[in-house]
Amino acid sequence: GAVVSQHPSWVICKSGTSVKIECRSLDFQATTMFWYRQFPKQSLMLMATSNEGSKATYEQGVEKDKFLINHASLTLSTLTVTSAHPEDSSFYICSANDRGRTEAFFGQGTRLTVV
Amino acid sequence: KQEVTQIPAALSVPEGENLVLNCSFTDSAIYNLQWFRQDPGKGLTSLLLIQSSQREQTSGRLNASLDKSSGRSTLYIAASQPGDSATYLCAAGRAAGNKLTFGGGTRVLVKP
Questions:
Q1: Cβ contact, residue pair B98, A42, below 8 Å
Q2: Helix, strand, coil percentages, rounded to 5, for chain B
Q3: Distance CA B14, CA B105 (A)
Q4: Residue A72 — pLDDT band, cuts 50, 70, 90?
Q5: Residue A87 bridge partners (DSSP)
Q6: Per-residue buried b or exposed e for B45-78, using 16+ beta carbons within 10 Å of the residue's own CB
Q7: pLDDT digits (tens, 9 = 90+) for B65-112
Q8: Using CB atoms within 10 A as the burial measure, which of A90, B17, B62, B90 is most buried?
Q9: Residue A104 forms beta bridges with which residues?
Q10: pLDDT over 70 for what percent of chain B?
Q11: How far apart are CA A4 and CA A23, in angstroms?
Q12: Which DSSP symbol is given to A55?
């Protein structure tokens, strides 16, 4: 149980375009989801907390206007990287908690390459 | 601000040897401590979760201990196999919201 699905698994886009990444909880409802970023050879860094029905909470240093988060339902959160640049190339991964459980479950991640 | 450190960054052992992976954290006021496995280019697989009130958790060949007072957790993998080769990440959970602060990971290679 507690499956989190992320789509797409990889994407290549041109500099200046926007890319949307979806994170879905398949068999549970998630009022809160988290978005992380992982640069090569580095660990995961929390970018923002996605709250169903309200604005996302961003970590210090993360541009909220660049990384738009929408949590429109209890099973879906989306991260849109706007006006992407090569330095945004990274591995983006989401996590969600099943209500009543403290264990975090992660999606498969999305490898974004901006050329 | 919580900081999580994993040492060593890389480890290579012959098959059959036991693995000991270390994780330390600076703020002992954690909600839980979670160990993950990450294969190259893939997402995270949860291995073990230790609540702040617990001392250890076991699953098969895996055992994780938690010592909040010293700010340490250790993951033991018994009788390592080549399939155990991966990067192992520990993460400290902050409060009930379960935002995680990750360590840098230990890259493990088990040689046949």
A1: no
A2: 5, 60, 40
A3: 20
A4: confident
A5: none
A6: ebbbbbeeeeeebeeeebebbbebeebebbbebe
A7: 999 999 999 999 999 999 999 999 999 998 756 789 999 999 999 999
A8: B90
A9: A97
A10: 97
A11: 7
A12: -
Judged by a CB distance cut-off of 8 A, whether residue A105 touches chain B is yes
- Measured from the Cβ of residue A10, the count of other Cβ atoms closer than 10 Å reads 11
Q: How far apart are CA A26 and CA A98, in angstroms?
A: 11
| Encoded tokens for A19 | 């890319």
Distance CA B88, CA B86 (A): 6
SS3 A88: helix
Does A12 touch chain B if contact means CB atoms closer than 8 Å? no
The position carrying tokens 């909470």 is A57
Beta bridge partners of A92: A37, A110
Q: Which residue of B has its CA nearest to A105?
A: B46
